[in-house]
Amino acid sequence: MARPRIKDVARHAGVSEKTVSNVINDYVHVSDRTRRVVREAIDHLGYRVNLAGRHLRKGRTGIIALVVPELDVPYFAELARHVIREAEQLSLTVLIHQSGADREHELAALAGFGSDFVDGIILSPLALTADDLRQRVGVPPTVLLGELLEEGADHVAIDNEKAARQATEHLIGLGRRNILAVGGHEAPGLGTAEARTRGYLAALAEEGLTRQPDALLAVDDFRMPAGARAVAGALRAGLRPDGLLCLNDQLALGALRALHEHGLRVPEDVAVIGFDDVEGGRFSVPTLSTVAPDKAAVARVAVQLLHHRIGEAAARSPQEADPGGPGVQAPQDRVVAHRLVLRESTEGPGAR
């Protein structure tokens, strides 16, 4: 059977094709009765709006890109689900791209992949520098996730430094004094990891605790095996932590394994807290205390902000290449809420 067209809907509803178009596009000057009749005809015939045609008439593709370092990292997988859900509300399709934290891949994404098939980009950068962002010209509208690299770019994140400070303060409040940061790193340019490390160190300083020489446990990546290796190595080297701040939940889950293999109890001997509130932490033994970013809010704010920027770009003439030109809203730095979720790895059996 042929796919129903707009003229079929008009014939069934007894109205003009223009009236059907007005209903589909939510034109305000349509009576409630006419709107109801047209929608009933659409439902009866199974008519589907040609979104591709609609977007092309507006000079858009209706596609946005979500670029993340690794798709199989639970935080990014969960975030992608929220982004897709929010985009669907705006009739946008999401193209998901894995950068591998590689600068060339991130630059290609920032440039729109050398094509016009995406209207805008939501990018979680790990390898890009502030200079890379300053030099962007004529690229699709872009919203950055994570730590702010450039004040001239739209940006959505939690306050990572504040969150790490609160998590560390919680460990200190439990009486822990020898707290290590798994994945901690002070080198500039590492974005989220650097911000979380600053928060950890600030909490130690505020409580007058001496920072241990080997307090920052370096990792090659932010997966479970790296967390297990870092903690096992520290224990073999003679370190005796009573608390671990892990810069993400994957590292924390690996740390739990290493502590178990070395005969240490959690939280009796070592209290552990992570970041991201991924699903696996709710089912680990013990369950994992964590900093929970509002992932749904991150996605909602990022998609809505990008949609607004796409509209601004479409309203400009081709000669108006300057993204900061007249009538364009200044770049937005949006901070989304987070909260501490306290479970068994810091509170003991029975905590939720």
Topology, pairings included?
Blueprint: H1 6-13, H2 17-24, H3 32-45, H4 51-57, E1 63-68, H5 74-89, E2 93-98, H6 103-110, E3 120-123, H7 130-134, E4 142-145, E5 154-157, H8 160-173, E6 179-182, H9 192-206, E7 216-217, H10 224-236, E8 243-246, H11 249-261, E9 271-275, E10 289-293, H12 295-315, E11 333-335, E12 338-341, H13 344-347
Parallel strand pairs: 1-2, 1-3, 3-4, 4-5, 5-11, 6-7, 6-8, 8-9, 9-10
Antiparallel strand pairs: 10-12
Helix pairs in contact: 1-2, 1-3, 2-3, 5-12, 8-9, 10-11
Report on the architecture of this protein.
41% of the residues lie in helices and 14% in strands. It has helices at residues 6-13, 17-24, 32-45, 51-57, 74-89, 103-110, 130-134, 160-173, 192-206, 224-236, 249-261, 295-315, 344-347, and strands at residues 63-68, 93-98, 120-123, 142-145, 154-157, 179-182, 216-217, 243-246, 271-275, 289-293, 333-335, 338-341. It is α/β, with parallel strands linked by helices. The chain is built from 13 helices and 12 strands. Strands 2-1-3-4-5-11 form a 6-stranded parallel sheet, sandwiched between helices. Strands 7-6-8-9-10-12 form a 6-stranded mixed sheet, sandwiched between helices. Strand 1, helix 5 (74-89) and strand 2 form a beta-alpha-beta unit.
